[in-house]
Amino acid sequence: MKTYYITTPIYYTSGKLHIGHSYTTVAADALARFKRLTGYDVMFLTGTDEHGQKIERAANEAGKKPIEYVDGIVASIKELWELLKISNDDFLRTTEPRHIEAVQKIFKKLYDQGDIYKSKYEGWYCTPCESFWLERQLEDGNCPDCGREVEMTTEESYFFRASKYADKLIDYIKENDDFVQPSSRRNEMLNNFLLPGLEDLCVSRTSFSWGVPVTFDEGHVVYVWIDALSNYITALGYLSEDDEKLKKYWPADVQLVGKEIMRFHTITWPILLMALGLPLPKQVFGHGWLTTEGKKMSKSVGNVIDPVKLIGRYGVDAIRYFLLREVPFGSDGQYSSESLLLRTNADLANDLGNLVSRTAAMTLKYFDGVTPGEWEATEHDALIEQQGEKLHAIVSEHMDALRLPEALADIWSYIGSLNKYIDLTMPWVLAKDEANKKTLASVMYHLTEGLRIVSVLLVPFIEDTAKKIQDVLGIEDETLVDWDSIAKFGKNVCGLTVKKTAPLFPRIDVKKELSELEKIADDSDLSKKKSTPKKQEVAGVITYDEFMKVELRLGQVKEAEAIDGSDKLIKMQVDVGGETKQIVSGIREWYSANEMVGKTIVVVANLKPTKLFGTMSEGMLLAAQADGVLKLVTIDGDMKSGARVS
Ligand code: MSP
Q1: 262 lines ligand 1 (CB under 6 A)
Q2: CA separation (Å) from 108 to 70, 101, 160, 307?
């Protein structure tokens, strides 16, 4: 059986997790579930990062022993993953003996082979980030990552010879395109960190004791990254008596991490693996952040949202769907209560929920609840069959490339086609005349079979909802819900008995709910924002992250027409990778509608939709303009629609 090993970072145990934290784990969970569904032997690992000075201090302040302090937080993290239906196969705590013993062996092995040596550390230390900085790296004397105060530290420490492996890693990254993904992050790692030269890494501390003790030098504890990063292999039994899992699953297929810890995962981690003589993970994928009002959601900014509350109010699937659909994978995504509520209403309550209840209600009304087995085709059936069959391959492709929102967009575009099919065939009109009974039968069969396909596709993302749909359709046979069964639009559902159903997702009154949320807001909500530790901003200059917020994608113009009454505007339907966006642009002076059809253009894909001349526009195209002439920005050579431009 093919294996698939996927990991999330191990979570800090210094406080409660927020909805931004849930993002990495929910995304990894969807990928793990998808691989299981498609026949892989999956190992999905998550866990907790429990050592360090910060936790030692927090425990002291709480009047607890560090282990008592972290035990409580680990329990709340595990509860959150249960609520979010996370299907991890293992959960590693860095305080477990299996991890501690292996880390001690790793440290000793590296020391014995000369990759770790003793020296003196002098530098600036940021406790919240657990990072050392050189004088020249500080920004206004503060930590360049979080902007907070740093402390001067001098102590005897062990160092890891990272510099020894730098050239080997540079070659590896250059030769293996898949290793650092998305590719924009590869250049950032090479140019900003590796090519300027690597410093050796401080890997032990003596100024605190809450860590893995170094076996051969009392007073030293293993410091941060060797302890934390090794979890990905200690969980598999590396250097233990039983390393069967290591043999089976290592190297990992995908290691998902947030972009702020990309550097440690694509530089420190591979160098550590090289020193240990182990192969590197096939891919480290750095996803963007969930932001609120443009800032990373984080406790120190004071803009966190409690996922437990959200799940309690809207249900786990609304939250999972929002996270997976709304955040472009690899870029930042904006969280707001309003966008969560609007998404839930539009996609889940309206598009999907209505389709399921209409299908069930009509089968009950017209065929006594039994999905018909004989019919006469309607002129719209072929499209429903073809689109349904294709999704098996399309969704696979998206998932293998970690394009989770695109996979959901394609599933929803099929849900849209099924709803449109009802509007076109008008079953309530067909039902008026007994002579149309067989055509009506075709409609009901196609809707039920289409929904069966949708339900199987939804399993990795929102399994509870998928199972509810299968229950409503009366699907009990396991072979009707396996992955291969949806490669063909077939007669699978004839004779099934459907059930009457309550709405899958009750419609939310957005205005009322938003004012309700205001009323019950407490410390963990947006309404009580603290001030952000600000870095100095230079007028007119934007950071890399700010630039990456603009989602530029290649789009192919499928249809174009001039807008009546305007001599400037053209309305276009643009395929941006499985999703069609309507874009209105004032280019008619330079391009005719006909000329635009078939062109590959660059589109700002995450622009807030707006109405131009009464017509909705969901994006913007890029063009250069000078001396009264306008030219479209296009691409040099062939590339598929949806490709990210950066
Ligand atoms: N303990 C380290 C990881 C060590 S791995 C060897 C750590 N922990 S963390 O708790 O701070 O973060 C865990 C994950 O949550 C990271 O992938 C991080 O990027 C992610 N997120 C934390 N805040 C986030 C957002 N606001 N948005 C998206 N992901 C976020 O880092």
Answers
A1: no
A2: 27, 11, 12, 41
Give bridge partners of residue 149 from the DSSP assignment: 142
Q: Are 11 and 56 in contact (CB under 8 A)?
A: no
Q: Sign (positive/negative) of CA torsion 300, 317, 9, 139?
A: negative
279, 380, 456, 457 from 37: Cα distances, Å: 27, 31, 9, 10
Q: Where are the alpha helices (DSSP H) in 401-436?
A: 404-425, 427-430
Most confident of 277-286, 301-310, 486-495: 277-286
Alpha-carbon Rg for the chain in angstroms: 27
- Between β-strands 620-621 and 600-604, what pairing exists: parallel, antiparallel or unpaired? antiparallel
Structure pTM?
0.80
Q: Which CATH class is domain 312-486?
A: mainly alpha
8-state DSSP, 196: T
Residue 328 exposure: Cα atoms within 13 Å on the Cβ side? 19
Q: Is 416 exposed, middle or buried (0-12, 13-18, 19+ CB in 10 A)?
A: middle
Residues 570, 588 contacting (CB under 8 angstroms)? yes
Q: Residue 210 contacts by C-beta under 8 Å, 6 or more apart in sequence?
A: 51, 52, 53, 55, 56, 59, 66, 221
Q: Which fold has domain 3-287?
A: Rossmann fold (3.40.50)
Mean pLDDT of 605-622: 84
3-state secondary structure of 302: coil
Q: Which of 175-189, 328-342, 346-360, 593-607 has the highest mean pLDDT?
A: 346-360
CA distances from 225 to 101, 135, 268, 582 (A): 16, 21, 8, 47
The structure tokens listed for 637 are: 């050579």
Give the SS3 label for residue 93.
Answer: strand
Q: In this structure, which long-range contacts are made by residues 183-191, counting pairs with CB atoms below 8 Å and at least 24 apart in sequence?
A: 184/330, 184/548, 184/644, 184/646, 185/259, 185/262, 185/266, 185/286, 186/266, 188/262, 188/544, 189/262, 189/263, 189/266, 189/267
- For residue 27 and ligand 1, the question of a CB distance below 6 A is answered with no
Domain ranges of the chain: 3-287, 312-486, 550-632
- 283: three-class secondary structure by DSSP: coil
Judged by phi (left if over 0) then psi (alpha if -120 to 50, else beta), residue 118 lies in beta
Is 302 close to ligand 1, i.e. is its CB under 6 Å away? no
State which ligand 1 atom lies nearest to the alpha carbon of 264: 6
DSSP-derived 3-state class of residue 168: helix
Distance 287 CA to ligand 1 centre (A): 10
> Under CATH, what is the fold of the domain 550-632?
OB fold (Dihydrolipoamide Acetyltransferase, E2P) (2.40.50)
Number of CB atoms found within 10 A of residue 486's CB: 23
pLDDT digits (tens, 9 = 90+) for 519-559: 766 544 443 433 333 344 454 567 666 787 788 999 999 99
For atom 21 of ligand 1, the residue with the nearest CA is: 21
Ligand 1: nearest atom to the Cα of 296: 26
330 lines ligand 1 (CB under 6 A): no
- Bridging pattern class, strands 254-258 and 3-12: parallel
In one letter, which amino acid is 257?
V
Please state, as a whole number, how many other Cβ atoms lie within 10 Å of the Cβ of residue 577: 21
Q: Are 544 and 185 in contact (CB under 8 A)?
A: no
* Cβ of 227 less than 6 Å from ligand 1: no
- Ligand 1 close to Cβ of residue 103 (< 6 A): no
Residues near 540 by beta carbon (within 8 Å), at least 6 away in sequence: none
Give me the phi and psi of 311, to 5 degrees please: -65, -40
